[in-house]
Structure prediction request, 190 residues.
Amino acid sequence: MKSKHSLRLLGLGLVSLFIFGTCIDASAQGRGRGGGGGRPVGNPGMGTRGGGGVDGGLGTASERSKGRSDAGLDRARAASENAKQADKELHENPGLDKGMNMSANELRSGYQAALVKNPDLKFGQYVAANRIARNHGARNPNITTDAILQGLADGKSIGQRLQELGMSSKEAKDAEKAADREIKESKRQK
Prediction:
């Protein structure tokens, strides 16, 4: 009889500990200190985009906002992908920064700053804008990296923007060709 009573008390104690532990775990998760290593990708409770990355589980917020933040997420995603591509290109072409009076880190950080204004900007466009500004800015003070990048952000090509800044059509084409040639030469230097 005594062992049956002890067995019931032991079972009741274990059930109580289990319930107590579950409550503590749930409480800690509510404060962001739960167990587990973050959200699993594709968690259906975290929106349609999955967890982590640029989306950061904001799928439900996007759904509540009726799509208003989707454009911002798309811009952030494009900028992130372009930045990764730039890192890859700098790694594969260590001579790319040669002749530009800046280090690879300065080139990378300048590009990342430019991505804030234009997340669709390609790294090659950024490098070309710097080369052209370096080659022609002394003779034509309107031609700066920022001025060229602003034209690209407005949807213009480099050649169109150079013409707006005072170059003739032929000068703009020649400037682009020279920049492309310099970039190709710098990629060959390892």
Helices lie at 2-30, 59-64, 70-92, 104-117, 123-136, 145-153, 158-164, 169-188. The radius of gyration is 28 Å. The mean pLDDT is 74.
